[in-house]
């Protein structure tokens, strides 16, 4: 039995590895055509949700309140309810007592953007310095 389990797990790992590599190749190709990428993604999402809806229609308990309760329970247990419907950035900005992006003045947004660009330059310089030190060894 253990031998069969190991063979099954090995086969599953190979299948997952194949699809992982295939996904990487497809994303690489599609990333050069963002509109086509978006259309294919939209079609995939719509077809998936269509399948979920049709499957749920086969189970009488998943009509009306049953569907709502099960969906809410799944989202609560996985931690996706709040992050999906509100978003992490809104929650974090509330904790920091920051203004919403639409309430910020253009100068505030530009100032933050300049700070981010400055930090990116510093990180690039640090990375360059670390690479030079590593090359000396």
Folded structure, characterized:
By secondary structure, the protein is mainly α. The protein folds into two domains: 2-100, no CATH class; 101-137. It has six helices and no strands. It has helices at 2-30, 34-57, 65-78, 80-85, 88-95, 106-136. The longest helix has 31 residues, at 106-136. The N and C termini lie far apart (51 Å). The chain crosses the membrane at residues 29-49, 69-91. Keywords: Coiled coil, Membrane, Transmembrane, Transmembrane helix. Residues 95-136 form a coiled coil.
Keywords:
extended; 6 helices; coiled coil; membrane; transmembrane; 137 residues; mainly alpha
Overall mean pLDDT stands at 83
How many DSSP helices?
A: 6
Largest β sheet strand count, sense and barrel closure: none
Write down the Rg: 24 Å
Structural class, from helix and strand content? mainly alpha
How much strand content do the residues show?
under 5%
Runs in which pLDDT lies below 50 for 5 or more consecutive residues are none
| Termini separation | 51 Å
Structural domain count: 2
SSE order, one letter for each helix or strand: HHHHHH
> What is the total tally of β strands?
0
Q: What is the overall shape?
A: extended
Helicity range of the residues?
Answer: over 70%
């Amino acid at each position: 039995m253990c031998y069969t389990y190991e063979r099954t797990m090995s086969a599953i790992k190979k299948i997952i590895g194949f699809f992982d590599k295939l996904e990487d190749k497809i994303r690489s190709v599609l990333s050069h055509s963002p509109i086509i990428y978006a259309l294919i993604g939209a079609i995939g999402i719509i077809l998936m949700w269509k399948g979920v809806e049709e499957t749920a229609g086969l189970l009488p308990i998943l009509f009306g309140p049953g569907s709502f309760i099960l969906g809410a329970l799944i989202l609560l247990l996985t931690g996706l309810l709040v992050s999906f419907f509100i978003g992490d950035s809104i929650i974090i900005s509330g904790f920091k007592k920051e203004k919403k992006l639409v309430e910020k003045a253009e100068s505030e947004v530009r100032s933050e953007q300049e700070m981010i660009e400055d930090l990116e330059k510093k990180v690039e310089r640090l990375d360059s310095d670390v690479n030079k030190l590593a090359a000396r060894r």
